[in-house]
Amino acid sequence: MSGKLNLDKLDYQIIQHMMEDAEISYADLGKKLFVSGGTIHVRIKKLQELGVVKGNRLAVDIKLIGYDVTAFVGIYLEKSSLYDSVVEDLKKIPQIVRLNYTTGNYSMFVELCCKDIAELKKVLHDELQSIKGIERTETLISLDESFNRNVQVIDLND
User: Considering all CA atoms of the chain, what is the largest pairwise distance in Å, rounded to the nearest integer?
Assistant: First the structure.
């Protein structure tokens, strides 16, 4: 896909640096990469227009604000043709933070975050199981997240 987008080394360097520190100023990043802050600004704008850079988010330690349960749910669909309608229903559940269409045992795999086990039970029993097209689910509760990182898109030592 990157061949179609026509990204160069500077684009990849900008992406990598911004994934590591999104608060860095364009001027400071320009100094690191030996280009002007204006060049960084233009490149970021281009990457946004291409859809490579999608918004910006604040990284929050959800456990510190009361979300003590992270769970992963494998979803079995009655028929794969129901995927799109199930996705639309799953989008309505705010505790679901990630959804993937998968190969293997499950048709779909979701990650959700809840304040406690009671909330998880409510989401699973009252919301997920009532969605038309879901045959059954399997839930895995995370005991701990050892690390969470972005993919490294370029070797910065190169």
Answer: 56
